[in-house]
Amino acid sequence: MSDTVNHQASEQQGIRVMVVDDHPMWRDAVARDLAEAGFDVVATAGDGEQAVRRARATGPDVMVLDLNLPAKPGVQVCKELVGSGAGPKVLVLSASGEHADVLEAVKSGATGYLVKSASTAELLDAVRRTAAGDPVFTPGLAGLVLGEYRRLATEPAPAAGSGGAKSAAPQLTDRETEVLRLVAKGLSYKQIAERLVISHRTVQNHVQNTLGKLQLHNRVELVRYAIEAGLDDV
């Protein structure tokens, strides 16, 4: 057990995190918990405009982001930073568990969504997994997100939309397609690694290669692509 804890601590030391929340006491408490757990807290911010500016200056790996922010809403912050392709992975930490807020956050590029009733241990695990590229959701919300993508996938594609998505599939190797299929089913990288008897790092490499080949920016877009291609039904 101690070996596991030591391994996690060493992993966390290399993860740069930024905390964005308009409540100073909450923001400071989250930043303190992360720092004490070994994460490198490189910045904090109390409003949306400050968040974008400081994120671009400090380059965090993960942004823990509240949605309800002054100056610029969290969803807009997410769009501006994640849309650049070089921005941080975003873990939303919100008081709201409303389905509309969750879906809006994910569509704007957030990797995960946690409600503020989560424990400190759940938050630390969520930040660690977000940094690794795993989608992390408060229990019950992952199914909601996958269900929404399935609904969108059944709607007619716009004329200039992703009609060429399926034709890109032959670019993928058999292993990449296999990993993509499991991603679409909602499995974490750890679960995929165990299923395919390969390392967690190998799974990450396959996902990164697939993102590059399909010209997608993050795992959320990858899940959408896989569902549209029908890979989640195989």
UniProtKB/TrEMBL annotation:
Keyword annotations from UniProtKB, A to Z: DNA-binding, Phosphoprotein
Gene3D superfamilies: 3.40.50.2300
Domain spans labelled Response regulatory: 16-131
A single GO molecular function term of this UniProt record: DNA binding
Residue spans crossing the bilayer: none
GO biological process, one term: regulation of DNA-templated transcription
CDD domains, sorted: LuxR_C_like (cd06170), REC_NarL-like (cd17535)
4-aspartylphosphate modifications at: 66
InterPro entries: CheY-like_superfamily, NreC/VraR/RcsB-like_REC, Sig_transdc_resp-reg_C-effctor, Sig_transdc_resp-reg_receiver, Tscrpt_reg_LuxR_C, WalR-like
Highest taxon above the source species: Bacteria
Protein name (record): DNA-binding response regulator
